[in-house]
Amino acid sequence: MITLQDKNILVTGASQGIGREIAISASKLGATVTIVGRNVEKLQETISLLSGNGHKMQAVDLSNATDIDELISQSLPYDGVIFNAGIVEYLPVKFLNESKIDAVFSVNFDSNVVLSQKLIKKKLLNKKASLVFISSISSKLGVGGTAMYAASKAALISFSKVLATELAPQGIRSNSICPGIVKTAMTEQASDAASEEELKKAELEYPLGYGEPSDVAGLVMYLLSDMSKWMTGSDLIIDGGFTLK
Ligand code: NDP
User: Is 149 assigned a catalytic role?
Assistant: First the structure.
């Protein structure tokens, strides 16, 4: 029932993981997809996995304003934008400094503000477009060592809600998604420090186990499609039941 036929969709951070799966799913539903990230080889790999024709890729470092301008200058109006690119940094608050704060916020938050503002100002969002911000369940928790990651993801939710209000007159919707742990390179990096036993114990906290990128992509497809046309300003938890307790 869900179709993205004739929709032009931009996915950031689509060289791997959740972003790649979102691009693949959107192409299967008929969308024309533009994917961005820094790693050209991995972007090419994603392109090779897409269904249909006319998809584009562009090497973009989202922490670099010139790269964002370049992307904007080559863009046609979008019907959907997935703000998915993100990085994680585990550090207790006492070890934070300005450059570490900037490093996380520039990718996880600032880049999304700059990109969405430029898309709005250059009229690159079609009427009834859908914006989806990939936040994190971390934004609602207080897990030690995640201060900048969690704060940047919480900021994203607030930003998305304000956008939802400001863009509603054009029928443009803005929602955010808070996934729990999804098996990707990002979580592999985090689990490097833990033992096999600790990892198994941690997964037991998830009644439905850890997620797959396709679990998040499924929800994104709904938010991109016209089936969610009355949904805006929401922040949706998708976490296999982790926050039930
Ligand atoms: P990955 O590390 O697998 O992928 C991250 C993506 O972001 C890559 O495609 C990477 O591309 C891109 N990226 C990172 N920095 C930049 C940059 N400066 N400019 C452009 N692109 C960049 O992560 P996941 O797929 O796991 O995560 C995707 C999103 O989901 C993130 O925002 C993450 O915070 C969020 N999330 C993930 C969860 C999980 O458990 N995996 C849970 C909750 C939220 P490249 O290296 O080519 O630049």
Answer: yes
